[in-house]
Amino acid sequence: MMTLTIVVQWLHVFLGIFWFGSSLYVDAILIPTLNRLPLKEQQKIGGLIGPRTSQVLVPVGLTVVALGFLRGTVFGPLRSLDAVFGTAYGVTWLIALLLAIGVILWGLLVLKPRAEALGNAKSPEAYGAIVKQLKVMTLVEITGFVAIFTCMILMRFGL
Ligand code: HEM
Protein backbone atom coordinates (compact mmCIF):
# COMPACT_ATOMS: atom_id res chain seq x y z
CA MET A 1 0.00 0.00 0.00
CA MET A 2 2.86 2.34 0.96
CA THR A 3 4.58 1.76 -2.42
CA LEU A 4 1.35 2.41 -4.31
CA THR A 5 0.76 5.59 -2.26
CA ILE A 6 4.24 6.80 -3.25
CA VAL A 7 3.51 6.07 -6.93
CA VAL A 8 0.16 7.91 -6.76
CA GLN A 9 1.77 10.90 -5.00
CA TRP A 10 4.69 10.94 -7.46
CA LEU A 11 2.36 10.97 -10.48
CA HIS A 12 0.05 13.51 -8.84
CA VAL A 13 2.86 15.96 -8.05
CA PHE A 14 4.60 15.41 -11.41
CA LEU A 15 1.44 16.01 -13.45
CA GLY A 16 0.38 18.84 -11.09
CA ILE A 17 3.57 20.80 -11.73
CA PHE A 18 3.24 20.03 -15.47
CA TRP A 19 -0.32 21.44 -15.49
CA PHE A 20 0.23 24.50 -13.29
CA GLY A 21 3.71 25.18 -14.70
CA SER A 22 2.49 25.05 -18.31
CA SER A 23 -0.20 27.62 -17.56
CA LEU A 24 2.32 29.93 -15.89
CA TYR A 25 4.68 29.56 -18.87
CA VAL A 26 1.95 30.30 -21.41
CA ASP A 27 0.68 33.36 -19.50
CA ALA A 28 3.99 34.84 -18.36
CA ILE A 29 6.31 34.08 -21.31
CA LEU A 30 4.69 32.64 -24.45
CA ILE A 31 1.72 35.00 -24.94
CA PRO A 32 3.61 38.24 -24.09
CA THR A 33 6.35 37.19 -26.55
CA LEU A 34 3.91 36.27 -29.34
CA ASN A 35 2.14 39.60 -28.81
CA ARG A 36 5.17 41.36 -30.30
CA LEU A 37 4.70 39.65 -33.69
CA PRO A 38 2.54 40.98 -36.55
CA LEU A 39 -1.16 40.04 -36.26
CA LYS A 40 -1.16 37.42 -39.05
CA GLU A 41 1.82 35.59 -37.55
CA GLN A 42 0.27 35.64 -34.08
CA GLN A 43 -2.90 34.13 -35.50
CA LYS A 44 -0.96 31.45 -37.38
CA ILE A 45 1.14 30.40 -34.37
CA GLY A 46 -1.80 30.74 -31.96
CA GLY A 47 -3.87 28.50 -34.27
CA LEU A 48 -1.26 25.77 -33.89
CA ILE A 49 -0.50 26.17 -30.17
CA GLY A 50 -4.13 26.46 -28.98
CA PRO A 51 -5.45 23.01 -30.01
CA ARG A 52 -2.23 21.30 -28.89
CA THR A 53 -2.47 23.00 -25.48
CA SER A 54 -6.00 21.69 -24.87
CA GLN A 55 -5.13 18.25 -26.27
CA VAL A 56 -2.32 17.86 -23.73
CA LEU A 57 -3.42 19.89 -20.70
CA VAL A 58 -7.06 18.75 -20.41
CA PRO A 59 -6.12 15.05 -19.90
CA VAL A 60 -3.25 16.10 -17.62
CA GLY A 61 -5.57 18.25 -15.49
CA LEU A 62 -8.21 15.50 -15.27
CA THR A 63 -5.55 12.97 -14.23
CA VAL A 64 -4.24 15.33 -11.53
CA VAL A 65 -7.77 15.65 -10.13
CA ALA A 66 -8.38 11.88 -10.26
CA LEU A 67 -5.05 11.15 -8.53
CA GLY A 68 -5.70 13.90 -5.95
CA PHE A 69 -9.09 12.32 -5.28
CA LEU A 70 -7.48 8.90 -4.74
CA ARG A 71 -4.59 10.35 -2.69
CA GLY A 72 -7.06 11.87 -0.24
CA THR A 73 -9.44 8.88 -0.07
CA VAL A 74 -8.19 5.38 -0.98
CA PHE A 75 -4.57 6.36 -0.20
CA GLY A 76 -5.36 8.92 2.50
CA PRO A 77 -7.41 9.54 5.62
CA LEU A 78 -10.76 10.44 4.01
CA ARG A 79 -12.83 7.27 4.31
CA SER A 80 -16.23 8.79 5.16
CA LEU A 81 -18.27 11.92 4.47
CA ASP A 82 -17.75 12.82 8.15
CA ALA A 83 -14.00 12.86 7.54
CA VAL A 84 -14.48 15.09 4.47
CA PHE A 85 -16.85 17.61 6.07
CA GLY A 86 -15.78 17.25 9.70
CA THR A 87 -11.99 17.73 9.56
CA ALA A 88 -9.80 20.64 8.41
CA TYR A 89 -7.92 18.24 6.10
CA GLY A 90 -11.20 17.05 4.54
CA VAL A 91 -12.51 20.56 3.95
CA THR A 92 -9.20 21.69 2.41
CA TRP A 93 -9.22 18.62 0.14
CA LEU A 94 -12.82 19.34 -0.90
CA ILE A 95 -11.98 22.99 -1.66
CA ALA A 96 -9.01 21.84 -3.81
CA LEU A 97 -11.22 19.33 -5.62
CA LEU A 98 -13.93 21.89 -6.40
CA LEU A 99 -11.40 24.57 -7.37
CA ALA A 100 -9.61 22.18 -9.74
CA ILE A 101 -12.88 21.16 -11.41
CA GLY A 102 -13.68 24.89 -11.67
CA VAL A 103 -10.28 25.63 -13.25
CA ILE A 104 -10.80 22.88 -15.85
CA LEU A 105 -14.32 24.10 -16.70
CA TRP A 106 -13.13 27.72 -16.80
CA GLY A 107 -10.44 26.72 -19.29
CA LEU A 108 -12.80 24.74 -21.50
CA LEU A 109 -15.91 26.90 -21.38
CA VAL A 110 -14.50 30.43 -20.99
CA LEU A 111 -10.81 30.67 -21.94
CA LYS A 112 -10.75 28.29 -24.91
CA PRO A 113 -13.61 29.91 -26.89
CA ARG A 114 -12.16 33.39 -26.27
CA ALA A 115 -8.68 32.27 -27.35
CA GLU A 116 -10.18 30.70 -30.49
CA ALA A 117 -11.87 34.03 -31.28
CA LEU A 118 -8.38 35.52 -31.73
CA GLY A 119 -8.04 33.57 -34.98
CA ASN A 120 -11.09 35.33 -36.45
CA ALA A 121 -10.19 38.88 -35.35
CA LYS A 122 -10.14 41.08 -38.47
CA SER A 123 -8.25 44.11 -37.11
CA PRO A 124 -5.48 44.77 -34.60
CA GLU A 125 -8.06 46.66 -32.49
CA ALA A 126 -10.44 43.69 -32.35
CA TYR A 127 -7.49 41.41 -31.61
CA GLY A 128 -6.24 43.74 -28.85
CA ALA A 129 -9.69 43.83 -27.22
CA ILE A 130 -9.81 40.03 -27.00
CA VAL A 131 -6.24 39.89 -25.65
CA LYS A 132 -7.31 42.33 -22.89
CA GLN A 133 -10.23 40.05 -21.94
CA LEU A 134 -7.95 37.02 -22.01
CA LYS A 135 -5.52 38.69 -19.61
CA VAL A 136 -8.27 39.05 -16.99
CA MET A 137 -9.52 35.50 -17.65
CA THR A 138 -6.06 33.97 -17.27
CA LEU A 139 -5.59 35.94 -14.03
CA VAL A 140 -8.72 34.22 -12.70
CA GLU A 141 -7.27 30.85 -13.75
CA ILE A 142 -3.90 31.52 -12.10
CA THR A 143 -5.66 32.66 -8.90
CA GLY A 144 -7.47 29.30 -8.89
CA PHE A 145 -4.18 27.45 -9.32
CA VAL A 146 -2.52 29.42 -6.52
CA ALA A 147 -5.45 28.64 -4.20
CA ILE A 148 -5.24 24.91 -5.08
CA PHE A 149 -1.50 24.94 -4.49
CA THR A 150 -2.05 26.59 -1.10
CA CYS A 151 -4.48 23.76 -0.24
CA MET A 152 -1.72 21.23 -1.06
CA ILE A 153 0.67 22.88 1.36
CA LEU A 154 -2.00 23.09 4.09
CA MET A 155 -2.84 19.38 3.71
CA ARG A 156 0.84 18.53 4.08
CA PHE A 157 0.54 19.97 7.60
CA GLY A 158 -2.70 18.14 8.29
CA LEU A 159 -4.92 21.20 7.77
C1 HEM B 1 -2.90 22.33 -9.85
C2 HEM B 1 -3.26 21.22 -9.25
C3 HEM B 1 -2.47 20.54 -8.20
C4 HEM B 1 -1.14 20.63 -7.90
C5 HEM B 1 -0.07 21.49 -8.58
C6 HEM B 1 -0.91 19.75 -6.77
C7 HEM B 1 0.32 19.58 -6.17
C8 HEM B 1 0.53 18.80 -5.05
C9 HEM B 1 1.78 18.68 -4.34
C10 HEM B 1 3.06 19.43 -4.72
C11 HEM B 1 1.59 17.85 -3.31
C12 HEM B 1 2.64 17.41 -2.29
C13 HEM B 1 2.53 18.32 -1.08
C14 HEM B 1 3.54 17.92 0.00
O1 HEM B 1 3.71 16.74 0.27
O2 HEM B 1 4.15 18.83 0.56
C15 HEM B 1 0.22 17.40 -3.34
C16 HEM B 1 -0.34 16.55 -2.44
C17 HEM B 1 -1.68 16.22 -2.39
N1 HEM B 1 -2.65 16.64 -3.28
FE1 HEM B 1 -2.39 17.87 -4.84
N2 HEM B 1 -2.09 19.17 -6.42
C18 HEM B 1 -3.07 19.63 -7.26
C19 HEM B 1 -4.41 19.32 -7.24
C20 HEM B 1 -5.01 18.49 -6.29
C21 HEM B 1 -6.42 18.23 -6.21
C22 HEM B 1 -7.48 18.80 -7.14
C23 HEM B 1 -6.62 17.39 -5.13
C24 HEM B 1 -7.90 16.82 -4.59
C25 HEM B 1 -8.79 16.26 -5.36
C26 HEM B 1 -5.32 17.13 -4.55
C27 HEM B 1 -5.08 16.31 -3.47
C28 HEM B 1 -3.87 16.11 -2.86
C29 HEM B 1 -3.66 15.31 -1.66
C30 HEM B 1 -4.73 14.59 -0.88
C31 HEM B 1 -2.28 15.38 -1.36
C32 HEM B 1 -1.57 14.74 -0.19
C33 HEM B 1 -1.56 15.74 0.98
C34 HEM B 1 -0.95 15.13 2.23
O3 HEM B 1 -1.68 14.42 2.94
O4 HEM B 1 0.24 15.39 2.48
N3 HEM B 1 -4.38 17.82 -5.28
N4 HEM B 1 -0.41 18.01 -4.42
- Report mean pLDDT, rounded to a whole number: 96
| Beta content | under 5%
Helix content: over 70%
Helix/strand order, N-terminal first: HHHHH
Structural class: mainly alpha
- Compute the CA-based radius of gyration: 18 Å
In DSSP terms (H or I, runs of 4 or more residues), the helix count works out at 5
Largest sheet: none
Our count of domains comes out at: 1
Bound molecules: protoporphyrin IX containing FE
The termini sit apart by: 23 Å
- Topology, number of strands: 0
Runs with pLDDT <50, length 5+? none
Shape: elongated
TL;DR of this structure?
By secondary structure, this protein is mainly alpha-helical.
Structure description:
This protein is mostly helical and 159 residues long. The chain has one domain. The protein is 86% helix and 0% strand. It has five helices and no strands. Helix 1 (2-34) runs antiparallel to helix 5, helix 2 packs antiparallel against helix 4 and helix 4 packs antiparallel against helix 5. The mean pLDDT is 96. Bound molecules: protoporphyrin IX containing FE (HEM). Protoporphyrin IX containing FE binds at residues 12-13, 16-17, 19-20, 64-65, 68-69, 71-72, 76, 93, 96-97, 100, 145, 148-149, 152, 155-156.
List keywords for this structure.
mainly alpha; 159 residues
